[in-house]
Specification:
- By secondary structure, this protein is of the alpha+beta class.
- The chain has one domain.
- Helix content is 19%, strand content 39%.
- The chain has 2 helices and 4 strands, in the order ααββββ.
- Strands 1, 2, 3 and 4 form a 4-stranded antiparallel beta sheet that branches.
- β2 and β3 form a beta hairpin.
- The chain is flat, with a radius of gyration of 23 Å.
- The protein starts with a helix and ends in an 8-residue tail after the last strand.
Length: 79
């Protein structure tokens, strides 16, 4: 293909590498038609990071999960 169409190998590598990132180009779903909030209230702490899911917002075409991430940040430099 390189010789037949007079392409550079680097160009073809760049084009085909973009196919591996296909997920980046999928359209983002915009939630429409709010239905309700679903309380979840679950949490977990791992390695000084606190994760919590307080609720999920349900729409007609999608659900949006609310995720909170809290961590304790100090001014100390760990070695």
């Amino acid at each position: 293909m390189v010789k037949k169409y007079n392409f550079q190998v680097g160009f073809l590598n760049a084009v085909f590498a973009e196919f591996l990132n296909e997920e980046l180009y999928k359209p983002v779903v915009e939630p429409k038609g709010f239905l309700k909030n679903i309380p979840i209230l679950k949490s977990v702490e791992k390695k000084d990071v606190f994760y919590s899911v307080p609720f999920i917002r349900q729409f007609k075409n999608a659900s949006v999960i609310h995720l909170n991430i809290d961590r304790y940040i100090t001014d100390e430099i760990s070695e």
